[in-house]
Design a protein that fits this description.
The chain has 330 residues and is an alpha/beta fold. The protein folds into two domains: 163 residues, Rossmann fold (3-Layer(aba) Sandwich), CATH 3.40.50; 140 residues, Rossmann fold. 45% of the residues lie in helices and 15% in strands. It has 13 helices and eleven strands. The strands form two sheets. Strands 8-7-9-6-5-10 form a six-stranded mixed β-sheet, with helices on both faces. A five-stranded parallel β-sheet has the order 3-2-1-4-11, sandwiched between helices. Helix 2 links the parallel strand 1 and strand 2. Helix 1 crosses helix 13 and helix 8 crosses helix 9. The longest helix has 19 residues.
Length: 330
Amino acid sequence: MNFIESVKERAKNDIKTIILPESMDERVLKAAEIVLNENIANVIIIGNSKEIKSKGLSLEKATIIDPNTYELTEDLINKFVELRKHKGMTYDEAKRLLLEDYMYFACMLIKDGKADGAVSGACHSTSNTLRPALQIIKTAPGVDLVSAFFLMVVPDCEYGSNGTFIFADSGLEQNPDSEKLASIAASSAESFRLLVEEEPIIAMLSHSTKGSASHTDVDKVIEATRIAKEKFPQYKIDGELQLDAAIVPEIAKSKAPDSTIAGHANVLIFPDLDAGNIGYKLVQRLAKAEAYGPITQGIAAPVNDLSRGCSPEDIVGVVAITAVQAQSKK
């Protein structure tokens, strides 16, 4: 059984309710049909019921909510005003956002306990997806930073965890400082343990391995490694490591012979978003890897983004991941 099929099976063991707010995108509706037919999750679709049903898909098991006619919309508007009144939120502005931006409506449903998570981004930007989540659902207790990762599954690959890796941050945090890199490392370790169910082995990546180059960018990763080891001693972490030294045992022996992490990493922490985003797309396109994400970590309830080039099958995979994340929020 491959990775995403195993995640689907785990999702089926404890059914969660996931919101798909992008009813205007037919890929999302096709994904909803698959999710419901395979009993991966309960699905709430936000939009006009007549328009959604006109697509001719088997969505009888879906809950379709139109914000304009939903009996609890007024209650959600008032709760949104209360939640954001310290930021100057007015009733009229709250009503406009909830009726016009379905992601805001989705996040208020989650905040109100009507759903467990949401998946969006097929036809909206990352900021459109995550801004409402950060304003309404907010960060999980004890978490300093919301970040994003891609779960990469590389075919016929002996590295990582049978070809499975987390690449972080590859979707959200533009240029994290050392403290943020350390936080991303810890969150990514937890995400790997949850989703892959194996021990995370974390490499803090750089263009330098153990002092082979000197630059302020290298210094940032060295300091991040120090902080991560000090704050999160429960994880196996090392750096600074070049990519080949991080995942290839033979190269690790020559470049970082004293490291027990080098050559075995399955969680790769990139020094900035440029590196992380370029890295995951290179592996996805050239190695034909499955790339699931960007998956967020650190939000109080799982809200996950999609690539705008996603297929219905990609969306199904992210829904399954979101459901498993929601299971861990008990």
